[in-house]
Amino acid sequence: MSRTRKLSAPTGKKIFEPGQACPGFVILQEGTIKVTLTGPSGREVVLYRVKPGEVCLQTLSCLINGEPYGAEGVAETPIEGVLVPASEFHEKFSNDEEFRDQIMVSVATRFAEYQQLVEEVALTSFDTRLAKVLLRMSGSSDSVATTHSALATETASGRAYVSRRLAEFANRGWVEQRSDGIVIRNRRVLEQVAAGER
Questions:
Q1: What is the pLDDT of residues 136-151, one digit of tens each?
Q2: Going from the N-terminus, what domains does the chain have, and what CATH number goes with each?
Q3: What does the alpha-carbon distance between residue 31 and residue 10 come to, in Å, rounded to a whole number?
Q4: How far apart are alpha carbons 37 and 179 in whole angstroms?
Q5: Can you tell me the distance from the alpha carbon of 182 to that of 147, in angstroms, rounded to the nearest whole number?
Q6: Fewest CB atoms within 10 A around its CB: which of 24, 83, 113, 132?
């Protein structure tokens, strides 16, 4: 008899943390889980986000290697899904070819995202990374409800440096800083910066 159980959590709920044993394989049906890594200095970086149909590499690694989590996962939006216990996951992974193929395709996609993350951090200018994050977080509006600390996490940088670069963006008329976040004032130029054209 299956022991798969329903998983749900509100925005901001911690799903897993470093040192925690993995209870099973999460099949996400709704929402997004943000996975971050915090260094000894306290600096935090976003590794990836898990959306419906995608695999969390942290969870998969823990299940296959029998090791605890090394990163933190937080519900970025309300989430719904199911949790497949470790024993059932191993059986399904061994015997269900379609399930195994879906996981491997998702893993390959996630590794490509990791490669892109490394390239952006190592080979892309900070202004380009910051512009990309602001555009992504703004969506279809010009408002970004965020903090300098959150932007530092998204750009793999320090809060003080984010503050300095945002001040420069504001001086150039690209953005406006407000107490509740950032307002994009020149989206066209910001898109050019994100594309590495400025």
A1: 999 889 999 999 999 9
A2: 5-122 (2.60.120.10), 125-194 (1.10.10.10)
A3: 10
A4: 27
A5: 8
A6: 113
What pLDDT is recorded for position 2?
64
The rounded distance, in Å, linking the Cα atoms of 30 and 92 is 22
Cα–Cα distance for residue pair 49/31, rounded to 1 Å: 10
Measured at the CA of 87, the angle between CA 100 and CA 104, to 5 degrees, comes to: 15
pLDDT at residue 38 is higher than 70:
yes
Amino acid residing at 87 = S
Asked if 26 and 69 count as a contact pair (C-beta separation under 8 A), the reply is no
**Do residues 53 and 87 touch, judged by C-beta distance below 8 A?**
no
What residue has token string 């010009």? 142
Tokens of 197: 């054209």
Q: What is the DSSP letter of 196?
A: T
Across 177-192, b (16+ Cβ under 10 Å) vs e yields eeeebbebeeeebbee
Residue 33 has a CB neighbour count (10 Å cut-off) of 25
pLDDT of residue 70: 92
Of 44, 74, 14, nearest in space to 149 by CA:
44
CA dist., res. 90 & res. 114, Å (int): 25
Helix, strand or coil for residue 79? strand
- Return the structure tokens found at 136: 């992504």
Name the pTM for this structure: 0.70
